[in-house]
Amino acid sequence: MNELLEKAGLTPEILKDPAKRARAIDEYNAEAGGLRGLMRDGKPELAQTHDIPSDVSGPDLVRYLRFAAAGKRVPIIFAAGRATRLKLPRAFDVLGLAGLTPNILSELDSLQAPLRKIESSERLKTLLSAGANGEAKSSEDLSFIQRQLLQYRYQIENLIRHDGNGLLAQWLSNASFAVVTNEENRSAIALQLARIGFAGLRPEHVYMVVQPEEGGLEILPDGQTKPYNKEVWPEGHGKPFIDMQTDPKAAFRLNDRGHLVGLHKTFVEELQSRSVERAVFAQVNDLHLLEDMTHVERWLAADRLIQNGAEMVMEMVENRLEQKGGGIFIGKNGSVVMRDTICMKSRDLEAYSTPRCLSRMFYELTIQGMAKLGEGSLPAYLTERKTGNGKTVLTREFYSGDASGVLNARAIQQKGYALDTFKIQSRIGHALEAFRAQDSINPVILSVAKDLRRDPSAKSASG
After folding, report:
1. Which of 4, 72, 319, 344 suits a disulfide with 349, CB 3.0-4.6 Å?
2. Could you count the other beta carbons within 10 Å of the beta carbon of residue 375?
3. What angle do CA 426, 320, 358 make, to 5 degrees?
4. C-alpha dihedral over 92, 284, 276, 400, to 10 degrees?
5. What secondary structure, in 3-state letters, does the chain show?
6. pLDDT in tens, 255-269
7. Cα dist. 272→266, 269, 363 in Å?
């Protein structure tokens, strides 16, 4: 961290002045993002996207199913964030957003109250405890992450039943699934996945990458700094990209009881040893995942680009709400480079922080490409945080989209497709609607719920 302060020119004189400090941080992040180096005629050139097909031919579907059944594709669900925008008490960190259930969200929705009333709700305490221990009695107790894995199983089985000629057993034997968690929610998420019998997948092929949480540097009134570790935070969704390649202590497989077992090698090494070729990286709060975990059309669009040398394919969506976020630009070598809002807060770049097409934070990557993302491959940005007791702390952040600056990247987009995410309390009702919609189309969800009612110790995912 001190090295970053030196690079940013953050002297004590600047640090003690909030306005000067903010300008210096914005300027450092702009330089770290490197967007100015891509400018032509004084501005960066916006990149184009490739179309996602609206339908898939029979031969293409068979090709996808054979690829999946051979175990060459792994979904990686990012669930390490603390969902701070939900503004929930720290007791909820044991589940994170990934572990939240319809029952918990319904109770929150009914309270419509400040945090102190939420903290005093005995029903919420009971539901949180049940979720943390992987307990479930009905579909209302099935969390985001459980539902996403069950959706994956249901869709694959449904596609194979119609077009795959008996590939289900092969898929169940070879398929992988991975979740990126943080140190507080990893136990609950592992137990929840075990509770549903890993949707029929082999437990040893269900993985967890645990993102460490770090403190930062507290800024004192005189502009001096000192280490601060009383509160810790994940260092952004780009950090796991680095850890998957560099840190053998970050990666685990699960056993049938939902306990974490160390791989003693990096996650990328594990995938390579099993001949996995592609990973799809998605956010756990993306409500589209409750209806689509196979992403056949997206796989097909990405596959065509990967066959032509792409190592990373990023999905963009229409920015209907005119919100800030990841935008794409033409890189020096003609590939597509994504940069996020954090590096576009300086005056000359602010205009590009609200892109016409926005990153969904959904990537298809080659495992060979992921192996290139070592230490120092992604820029480290500076973020200013306020602690619970009002202290100002500087921390590092890494963004996953910056991997496009290292890899040969391209972008895809589907006309009319928009973001559908759950990040704030006002969207609780919408998230509940998404759960209900999934229940109406996915018989595996209802089958699991039936088994749980009949036998609380059941681990079933039959469809």
Report:
1. 344
2. 10
3. 100
4. -100
5. CHHHHHHHCCCHHHHCCHHHHHHHHHHHHHHHHCHHHHEECCEECECCCEECCCCCCHHHHHHHHHHHHCCCEEEEEECCCCCHHHCCCHHHHHCCCCCCCHHHHHHHHHHCCCHHHHHCCHHHHHHHHHHHCCCCCCHHHCCHHHHHHHHHHHHHHHHHHHHCCCCHHHHHHHCCEEEEEECCCHHHHHHHHHHCHHHHCCHHHEEEEEECEEEEEEECCCCCEEEEEEEEEECCCCHHHHHHHHCCCCEEEECCCCCEEECCCCHHHHHHHCCCCEEEEEECCEHHHHCCCCCHHHHHHHHHHHCCCCCEEEEEEECCCCCCCCEEEECCCCCEEEECHHHCCCCCCHHHCCCCEEEEEEEEEEHHHHCCCCCCCCCCEEEEEECCCCCEEEEEECCHHHHHHCCCEEEEECCCCCCCECCCHHHHHHHHHHHHHHHHHCHHHHHHHHHHHHCCCCCCCCC
6. 999 999 999 999 999
7. 10, 5, 19
* Token output for 277: 């070729």
C-alpha angle with apex 202: 201 to 208, nearest 5 degrees?
A: 90
- Return the structure tokens found at 355: 């892109």
Within its chain, how far is the Cα of 32 from the centroid? 23
Tell me, what amino acid is at 282?
A
User: Structure tokens of 230?
Assistant: 């009383």
Please state the φ and ψ torsions of residue 265, each to the nearest 5 degrees: -160, 170
Give the span between the Cα atoms of 31 and 46, in whole angstroms.
19
Band (pLDDT 50/70/90 cuts) for residue 274 is: very high
Sheet containing 213-219, strands listed edge to edge, beginning at the edge strand earlier in sequence: 225-234, 213-219, 392-397, 381-386
Specify the pairing of strand 278-283 against strand 73-78.
parallel
Residue with tokens 């077009």: 163
Q: Are residues 336 and 330 in contact, defined by beta-carbon separation less than 8 angstroms?
A: yes
Q: How far apart are CA 365 and CA 357, in angstroms?
A: 20
Instruction: Work out the pLDDT band at 462, boundaries 50, 70, 90.
Output: very low
The pair of structure tokens assigned to 429 is 């009702």
What lies within 8 Å, CB to CB, of 149 at 6+ separation is 177, 193, 196, 198, 199, 201, 293
